[in-house]
Amino acid sequence: MKKKKGILFIISAPSGSGKTTLCTRLVELVDSLYRSISMTTRPPRPGEKDGTDYIFIEKPEFMKRLARKEFLEWAKVFGEYYATPKKHILHMLKRGSDVLLSIDVQGAMKIKRLKLDAVYIFILPPSLDMLRERLVNRSTDSREAIKKRLEIARQEIARSDKYDYIVVNNRLESALDSLRAIIVAERCRVKRDR
Ligand code: 5GP
User: Fold this and answer.
1) Which end of the chain has fewer CB atoms at under 10 Å, N or C?
2) Per-residue pLDDT tens over the stretch 8-54
3) How far does residue 73's CA lie from ligand 1's centre (Å)?
4) What are the residues facing 54 on neighbouring strands?
5) Which of 19, 39, 65, 77 to mutate to test the pocket of ligand 1 (most atoms within 8 A of CB)?
6) Cα separations (Å) of 86 from 72, 122, 123?
7) How far is the CA of 82 from the centre of ligand 1 (A)?
8) Order of strands across the sheet with 71-77?
């Protein structure tokens, strides 16, 4: 029997929707799911570790890698650059491992244009008011930055119909259940290529 390729799962969500926590828990919960670590030019937030949360690099280094076509996709988000390193992911998929990318909508749409077979999941916050509250409570952003994030969130939510699944993050545990169910169902699918 031919060896199965891994499945690429792409998760997007507006900033402050709890996506990072969900993705961290998801890879702990689901067997054989590998989370890709993105590269970014943004400085680490308190508590973030290089090589675990992101690979933090300077802008000239990012541009060099971009020119060398080392990224599967990249995007400029809130004035900083983010990208998914290509080589390792393609290798993991080829050897049959499932890979989870947690990226913004621009990046997800770039992957769609590449016609790579992938499963697209959008995480919705319960409401924009709740999102505002979460961003304020996180207290990592200025009022101006929160306003900007909410505006981008509105634009991203408007594009959620391009995704295969929408999961509302009302309660962490039930959102996790839904995400796990999606992964299990996709793994049981008879035909992969859409
Ligand atoms: P944050 O700075 O809050 O960690 O992330 C800001 C946004 O950038 C989030 O929507 C996050 O999903 C997105 N992001 C993180 N890594 C990547 C990546 O490799 N590519 C793209 N396109 N977006 C990313």
Assistant:
1) N
2) 999 999 988 889 899 999 999 999 999 999 999 999 988 999 999 99
3) 11
4) 50
5) 77
6) 5, 22, 24
7) 6
8) 55-56, 39-40, 80-85, 71-77
Q: What is the pLDDT of residues 115-152, one digit of tens each?
A: 888 999 999 998 889 889 888 887 778 889 889 889 99
Structure tokens, 45? 């937030």
CA triplet 35, 184, 32: central angle to 5 degrees?
35
**Which atom, in ligand 1's list, is nearest to the CA of 19?**
12
Query: Mean of the pLDDT values across residues 173-183?
Result: 97
Q: Tell me the best of 82, 89, 101 to mutate to test the pocket of ligand 1, counting ligand atoms within 8 Å of each CB and taking the most.
A: 82
Going from the N-terminus, what domains does the chain have, and what CATH number goes with each? 8-193 (3.40.50.300)
**Tokens matching residue 107:** 């990046």
Alpha helices in the chain (DSSP H): 19-29, 59-67, 86-94, 105-113, 128-138, 143-158, 172-188
CA dihedral 121, 127, 129, 130 (to 10 degrees): -70
Q: Which two tokens stand for residue 144?
A: 């101006």
> Residue 116, SS3?
coil
